[in-house]
Design brief:
Layout (H helix, E strand, L loop, with lengths): L1 E2 L10 E6 L3 E4 L6 H11 L7 E5 L5 H4 L2 H7 L4 E4 L1 H8 L2 H11 L14 E4 L5 E5 L2 E7 L8 E5 L4 E3 L6 E2 L6 E2 L9 H12 L5 E4 L3 E4 L2 H26 L3 H12 L11 H16 L5
Parallel strand pairs: 3-4, 4-5, 5-6, 10-13
Antiparallel strand pairs: 1-2, 2-3, 7-8, 8-9, 9-10, 11-12, 13-14
The structure holds zinc ion (ZN).
């Protein structure tokens, strides 16, 4: 696992290198992180021609944006993702516009993939073989977005969760729901967490940020579900007191801001308000 310093800040975005006969990476970070992924491979003396797959969990720029600069340096690599993620990488204009509206200066554009890029569209249950019995199972995990997939490496029982399980605080292991609008769907997100739990992994990796092992894993799954329930309760109570999106956003920020440990500190107040908005829009359908 390497730290590609998403938002130019440490302990924010994790990229995983998978070694079989060939190499794969899961996730790329932002556009700017692509260069860091290539540096990390070179430091580990992994020849670029051995990099066979770049797997992305979903269409958001902080997960797939680095694919384009990597493809430009490694032309034979295949980009793997759900068909919506691949479509977003081919024509990112709508995604970039949406990210800019939500996150302003904290967004970073995805550049389109070169037209001749090799791609593989995957769905739940597909497998990506890297040789030497190393293979990745694709796990459909919608909820954060409709195109979200997680990846399970069966040999080491490593589960790369992307944004499906939440944001892991690197210091205190808090878990925060990744409930960003407009695509977040509460019930599907919760069901995806329950589904991931059945894999009983040995290593559990978060895109934001880091990994947990052993006896910590069931604790982290419980925490992901419990925090989601507390956020939901806070949203519903705030809405009952004053049915406005502003009241909901302020209530969630007030109660949970100090639990958000990833992202640069100056971005956290905005990000938590946007996540509260996504959760409330999913829970309160009239609130759009
Ligand atoms: Zn995301």
């Amino acid at each position: 696992m390497i730290d590609v310093q998403g938002w130019d800040f440490p302990h924010t975005t994790s990229v995983l290198i998978i070694r079989g006969r060939e190499f794969g990476i899961i996730e790329t970070g932002h556009h700017r992180c692509g260069e860091q992924v290539l540096d990390a491979l070179s430091i580990r003396q992994i020849p670029l021609e051995k990099l066979r797959y770049v797997c992305v969990t979903h269409r958001h720029g902080d997960h797939c944006g680095g694919a384009t600069p990597i493809v430009k340096k490694v032309p034979n690599v295949t980009v793997v993702g759900h068909r919506y993620a691949i479509a977003g990488l081919r024509d990112p204009s709508r995604l970039n516009e949406g990210a800019k509206q939500l996150f302003g200066k904290f967004s970073q554009d995805i550049q389109p993939l070169p037209p001749n890029t090799s791609v593989q569209e995957v769905q739940d249950g597909d497998r990506i073989a890297l040789g030497r019995n190393v293979q990745l199972e694709v796990i459909g995990t919608p909820g954060h977005t409709s195109d979200h997939v997680a990846f399970f490496e069966e040999h080491t029982r490593t589960l790369y969760t992307g944004d499906a399980l939440g944001l892991l605080g690197p210091k205190h292991h808090t878990v925060t729901p990744t409930s960003f609008p407009p695509s977040f769907k509460h019930d599907r997100y919760r069901a995806s967490i329950e589904k991931l739990r059945t894999y009983d992994p040995t290593f559990l990796v978060f895109s934001h940020f880091g990994a947990v092992t052993g006896a910590d894993i069931p604790v982290i799954f419980d925490r992901a579900l419990n925090t989601l329930d507390s956020w939901k309760e806070t949203v519903e109570q705030a809405w009952m007191l004053e049915p406005s999106e502003t009241s909901v956003m302020n209530a969630v920020k007030q109660r949970f801001l100090n639990e958000l440990e990833v992202f640069p500190p100056e971005a956290r107040p905005l990000f938590i308000k946007v996540m509260a908005q996504g959760l409330s829009r999913s829970l309160i359908p009239t609130n759009t």
